[in-house]
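Course exercise 7: structure representation. Students receive a sequence record and must write out the corresponding structure in token form. The form below is the worked example handed out in class, using Glycosyltransferase Family 2 protein (515 residues). Read each field label carefully; the graders check that inputs and outputs are placed in the correct fields and that the protein name is recorded exactly as given.

STUDENT ID: A-19
EXERCISE PROTEIN: Glycosyltransferase Family 2 protein
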Amino acid sequence: MKKKAKKTTYKAENIEAIPTRNMGFYEKYVKRAIDIICASAAIICFSPIYIGVAILVRFKLGSPVLFTQDRPGLIGEDGKETIFKMYKFRTMTDERDENGELLPDEVRLTSFGKWLRNTSLDELPEAFNILNGTLSVCGPRPQLVRDMVFMTDEQRMRHTAKPGLSGLAQVNGRNAISWEDKINWDLKYIEKVSFLEDLKIILSTVKKAFIKQEGITQDDMATAEDFGDYLLRTEKVDKENYNKKQLQATMILSGSDGIEREAGLVSIIMPSYNTASFIEETIQSVLNQTYTNWELIIVDDCSTDNTNEVVDTIKDCRIHYLKNEKNSGAAISRNKALREAKGQWIAYLDSDDLWMPEKLEKQIKFMEENGYVFSYTNYEEIDVDGYKTGVKVTGPKKITKTGMFNYCWPGCLTVMYDANKIGLIQIEDIKKNNDYAMWLKVCRKADCYLLDEILGQYRKGRVGSVSTHSIRTMIGWHYKLYREAEDMGILSSLFNTGRNLVFGFYKKKRYVRRQ
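STUDENT ANSWER:
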């Protein structure tokens, strides 16, 4: 559950960082153990209620039974909130108007849904959030992302404690108190997180939520008023800033990193290590492109040959030559280049491969005309001396997330995606298969489509390249990809490694053509 939660959480990149807070011994080491015990006990003891409510929801409101919503969680070391998926029992219908838009909350909230909320039974699934570590039993109640963006840096300090099923604000009025009071109670909680304070909150929550049912709704509204709407209504924020913050929330929820990218610009990512013999020809294939709106970001990983001298002879302001302080590998080099990229489009080219002159122009046209976010092309193989070997490689017309896990179909030199839709990609520091690690991340956000035309040349047989290593060595690399970059368990990593072997043989039979 914890690993699944990790894969569905993401960073609120498009927000300013704030100072972090040091946690005490109880909060850092003891609280989590109490959370696990309490959540496990609740699920076991109330399992008949879970089943009963789930059946009622399915019968009265339909499927899905669970409602998930992205909420701001604990602030990381970088001072930015993580966004996690919070689980609840569904309380509203999916009724829509003639334009397909959801009807207002008060229309979709049924009497059964109101009963679930009044009894707090809709929050029972949050016990699974506690088990996976995204929630705690006690802590500041997680608000909406569109509430978070309106908070000041001081108010966002509430996120330096793990959000809770209940907190001081909930036992001191819940939705019946003002936004300022709610946030002030949360800030008071983080001043001293202790076992006694949490115990008081738990006992008060049982009394107020399940016995007295206080403060469940706000002035008979179906849902509590958003923080931004409250600030706008009370004229504490103007309409312009209100709209700006709402847009920021939308960008965070879409996974946008908030980077302003130049429309139409292609950022070409090129890691380099000891390729002085080939890099000039590779750069020339970029200079020969019919599409001229590009930037080439070369990251030299401490080459020991004369790569820097070769690159220095090529004068073009679109070429940016960066150097690592120490030899770090292709993954770190690619991550560095991606952080420097300013373009809407991201393309990859290793420093010994080549592009056909119309590669960028044709691929961008293909994606724009079809509305694709992620694409790849066919390529052909050349040997160390640049002669064609007669091998041409293609792939599936469409690659879904499952298809990409089956095998790494795209050649690195053929891939392009829209960074405005995908966001900033950063991968774990694995020595090999790091391009595959990137495609697995990108394919979680968009399917990959094939431009069925040979637009690149892959140089095979160069000393140190992947193509020169044994199958046994590559099997080990695949295992590390799943175990380290994808953070899978041993059995899942072994299964996916075997899965890759099977589809690798299939690719050679189906998509590799020899003349």
